[in-house]
Amino acid sequence: MNMNCYCGSGNNYEDCCKSVHLDLKNAESAEQLMRARYSAFRLSMVDFLYNSFHPNSRRFQKKTEIEQWSKENKWEGLEIIKATENTVEFMAFYMDPFGEKQRHHEKSRFQKLQGTWYYVDGRIVG
Ligand SMILES: [Zn+2]
Q: How far is the CA of 60 from the centre of ligand 1 (A)?
């Protein structure tokens, strides 16, 4: 398979988010995990999205809600605005169930636990 990765990196999926989807430990940075989570939304990989939450915030998540959010929107693109070691500011573009174009602008926090990056939480910007 030769295609641009869902996260818009310009690399093939095989060389990009796939390795993280196979094993969370393969994310070498917060940004790489962020990209893999965006791709996972496009692919409705609910278990991956759930498991990549930090254990402290995971218990507040519901797989049914993750699945609904990933499926009811049409994901159209990701733009990384700024990434530091443990934060990523990004915009995700999507079409909502009413056919309206939407923009999700978020500053996310990540934390590494025993060598594995996790998504802690996010704050909506603007
Ligand atoms: Zn990717």
A: 26
